[in-house]
Amino acid sequence: MKNFGKYFVWGVATSAYQIEGAHDKDGKGVSIWDSFSNTPGNVMNDENGNIACDHYHKFEEDINLLSELGVKAYRFSIAWTRILPYGKGEINQKGIDFYNRIIDLLLEKGITPWVTLYHWDLPQNLQDEYEGWLGRQIIKDFAYFADVCFQAFGDRVRHWITLNEPWVVAILGYGQAVFPPAITSNSAPYLAGHHLLLAHAEAVEIYRKKYQKDQGGLIGITNNCDWREPVDQKSENKEAAERALEFFLGWFADPVYFGNYPASMIDRVGDRLPSFTEEEKTKLKGSSDFFGLNHYTTMMVENDDHTIIREQNVYGNGGISEDQDVILHTDPAWDKTTMGWSIVPWGCRKLLLWINQRYGLVDIYITENGCSFDAEVEDGQSHDPGRVEFLKGYLEACDEAIGEGANLKGYFAWSFLDNFEWALGYSKRFGIVHVDYDTLVRTPKESYYWYRDFIK
Ligand code: GAL
Fold first, then answer.
1. What is the pLDDT of residues 211-257, one digit of tens each?
2. Looking at the domain assignment, is residue 365 inside a domain?
3. CA 385 to CA 403: how far, in whole Å?
4. Ligand 1 pocket, Cβ-based, cut-off 6 angstroms
5. CATH number of the domain residue 212 falls in
């Protein structure tokens, strides 16, 4: 692989709720993930993130492992309720101290912090007060939280990500009820998505007006997208695949780059899709200094008109397929991870090129890519050959995409540690470092050593 170059940013990523634990330590407030996962029946095996990897107490050991890995950058998220236990109002100094220690230690080891402000752990208080992302007040409250973080950490943090995967927040939380606040609806995802975008834009405006000049950092948003490949070359299926990408990535990237939703969404979703005022459009347009992308898999797309579903007014999956008039398939020939996600490296290459074609030559950072495979520890070693193959395949695809003109500037493997995989609990293992959840002992896997040598 020859196209990555000297300045390519190699990193690994995590998020607060998935690794930190210490859910009620040192003044931390309750998030929707605390409540959801501590309510029986929501998470596989009724597991929760109360302890997780106990990174809160083991961060020094973890940062040493990062340092030995040789990554230039580490992406982690800040738990909103550690900083503002009720989501707004009084600041919890102990929360600030915790992230200060992490940031300082990373810098001491020569590792650049990439900080995500929102990786899904909304303060429960804001959920109770105005239904979280369904309430317009969230825009102001998120902007305040962001402001507090810029003020506290911005002298040392130069890479900010406002939101992680607003699509997941909207669809899984407000459409399919898989994640908290566990709502089933075919309109709530669009309202939540609208407020997520406006909250992002508000935070960016604050950063640019108050901090960016002095602190000299970059700020952006991370969206997730799988590749969508037409099942065949019939024009209706090719158009359906394009539409599926617009409903997935275009939903959140078009407003940020063009100031409005894709026309296909405006036409099809109708009144359920809120519209932006002219002022909001201006604020959104150009509100990301880089293109953050989380990419995991690929699905085949077939055109479908969903007439029967519509007539019965049954929206089974939060509008995910019905509004777009597509049906998604997987190819049985594709290898799968233990999550059942297909391993399709060429989908990654195609997606990177699609982004550069639609949004211009934007700087793209893959802020997450990885896979779930089991790996036990035997004689002090943990073998995960499937993950090594996965990484090789996807990195090769990235290399090819750069060769074909994509402006890919960085790659963060998901994840650094095995961690709490949301509604699937601890059953899925994404880490390049094995974590024994009983003893909390860390053991680097074969993929950790492979990645270390690869990025050298
Ligand atoms: C992403 C998410 C991560 C992680 C990963 C693997 O959607 O941002 O937190 O869980 O998926 O499922």
1. 999 999 999 999 999 999 999 999 999 999 999 999 999 999 999 99
2. yes
3. 27
4. 15, 18, 164-165, 168, 224, 294, 368, 414, 421-422, 430
5. 3.20.20.80
